[in-house]
Amino acid sequence: MPEFTQNLIRDLTKLLDLSDEYNITILVGDTNGKLVKFQAHSLILRARSPYFKRALSKDWSKKEGEMHIFKKPNISPKIYVYWSREFGQIFWK
User: Fold this and answer.
1) What is the mean pLDDT of residues 8-14?
2) Is residue 8 within 8 Å of residue 21, measured between CB atoms?
3) Please, are residues 72 and 24 in contact by the beta-carbon 8 Å criterion?
4) CATH number for the segment(s) 3-86
5) Beta 24-29 vs 62-64: how paired, if at all?
6) SS3 sequence, the chain?
7) What's the pLDDT tens digit per position in 25-83?
8) What are phi and psi of 8, to 5 degrees?
9) Rg of the chain (C-alpha set)
10) Which residues contact 69 (CB under 8 A, 6 or more apart)?
């Protein structure tokens, strides 16, 4: 792999670790009906998923300030974690 590509991947990985750069909160349901919070980068979700490209559009997405809020209480956290791995590593806290 070219050095430029390796450096770019390394730098983007560092960016993923910066929680102050997250701009989407994903709330999914657990078995007790409580919501579990994941945070991610909308740019990565849009690039990796046609669904999120549409879901995070101005026509569909809800925002609080600069933060996209994506609420899906009918999706379990286990399903979300599995699904997110299918689209590449998405970091959450």
Assistant:
1) 83
2) no
3) no
4) 3.30.710.10
5) unpaired
6) CCHHHHHHHHHHHHHHCCHHHCCEEEEEECCCCCEEEEEECHHHHHHHCHHHHHHCCCCCCEEECCEEEEEECCCCHHHHHHHHHHCCCCCCC
7) 989 897 787 898 888 888 888 888 888 888 888 888 788 988 999 888 888 887 877 66
8) -65, -45
9) 14
10) 24, 25, 27, 62, 63
Two tokens, residue 51: 């669904």
Q: Both tokens of residue 8?
A: 């770019």
Q: Which candidate, 65, 62, 16, places its Cα nearest to that of 41?
A: 16
Give residue 86's region: left, alpha or beta (phi > 0; psi -120 to 50).
Answer: alpha
Residue with tokens 């996209």: 68
User: What Cα–Cα distance (Å) separates residue 41 from each residue in 1, 16, 33, 74, 92?
Assistant: 25, 8, 25, 22, 9
Distances, alpha carbon 34 to alpha carbons 14, 25, 68, in Å: 31, 15, 20
